[in-house]
Design a protein that fits this description.
Blueprint (H helix, E strand, L loop, with lengths): L1 E2 L1 H23 L11 H19 L3 E2 L29 H19 L7 H7 L2 H17 L25 E3 H13 L2 E3 L5 H10 L1 H4 L3 E9 L8 E8 L8 E8 L11 E13 L2 E13 L12 E3 L2
Helix pairs in contact: 1-2, 1-3
């Protein structure tokens, strides 16, 4: 029997990827990297790695043969093998290839999953990003309603219990009822499931929500140009994975703003008003009551998906 070291290394890498993915699912940290709706795909990838690992183990030990690489030789032509079977001499090119593959494994096992924070907001553009989002929404309104909206929604007086909906997947009717609840409820409750949707709706018509009470939670972000008593209560919105994470949040006003450290998570209640920052109108929350909280187990927000029936 002959032992193939490089084939064993490849088998180990496949197993390591599977173990890493399963570990992230077991600890719940997978949602710090991807949208939960893709968890099924991630689990499938872990299973696939296991299958490939099992197949790869059959190549680690082989019976010695005098006619090495006989499968590469043509019976009528004498030419040498032009591709690698895993037992060719180890060289610099192979070393670089293995390092590129192993690097995510090393970081995945040794480095803790880090939640995006205010330092990332600065790199993404800060409040300028919120201004761009507002401009995009106005352009969408000029073009017409999106696929998630209907021109004349049917108002249903008996609103369904939308809290039962899982994975943020709604039918068109349920989505319209969600917007109806936003417009009719005396207090706007920005829970994680509806945060991004309510945020978009509020930016489409600031006057409609002026003077309404609102409750929300987020981390503290500060930017040059804000008043001493102002800060931004921010959240990260993930569509697919952390690579496409975007910042959304509300300028907020409270006397203790200057004493609050960046990245502090708070839960707040206040009243919606309108302010002007760098020539752009934003909703501003005049906070009446707040408290510090621990970072949530699920710090990210995910957009609602509307099923087309």
């Amino acid at each position: 029997m002959r032992f193939h070291f490089q084939q064993a290394v490849r088998a180990f890498i496949l197993l390591a990827f599977s173990v890493m993915l399963l570990k992230l699912h077991f600890t719940g940290e997978i949602t710090k990297f991807i949208n939960p709706k893709y968890e099924g795909l991630s689990q499938s990838a872990a299973v696939l790695f296991i299958i490939l690992f099992i197949i790869q183990t059959t190549r680690i030990w082989t019976v010695k043969e005098n006619n090495h690489h006989h499968q590469c030789h043509d019976d009528s032509h004498d030419h040498t093998c032009s591709h690698d079977h895993g037992d060719s001499p180890f060289n610099t090119k192979k070393l670089i290839s293995y390092l590129v593959i192993v690097f995510p494994l090393v970081t995945g096992f040794l480095l803790p999953a880090k939640v995006l924070d205010a330092s990332i907001v600065d790199k993404k553009g800060g409040l300028a990003v919120l201004s761009n989002q507002k401009t995009e929404k106005k352009q969408e309104e000029k073009v017409g309603p999106t696929n998630n909206q209907q021109e004349d929604p049917v108002i249903n007086e008996d609103l369904v219990d939308l809290s039962r909906i899982e994975d943020n997947v709604y039918t068109n009717e349920e989505y319209e009822q969600l917007i109806q609840q936003l417009e009719q409820s005396p207090t706007i409750e920005m829970n994680d499931h509806v945060f991004s949707t309510y945020y978009e709706e509020m930016h489409m018509d600031l006057d409609k929500f002026k003077g309404r009470e609102i409750t929300l939670k987020g981390f503290v972000y500060k930017e040059d140009g804000l008043e001493q008593n102002q800060l931004v209560l921010a959240r990260f919105l993930i569509t697919h994975c952390v690579a496409d994470a975007g910042i959304i949040g509300f300028i907020s006003e409270l006397p203790e703003a200057s004493s609050l450290e960046v990245n502090t998570w708070i839960e707040a209640k206040g009243v919606v008003d309108i302010t002007n920052y760098n020539g752009t109108e934003y909703p501003i929350i005049k906070i009446t009551n707040w408290k510090k909280i621990d970072e949530p187990r699920e710090p990210y927000l995910y957009p609602i998906s509307v099923k087309v029936l």
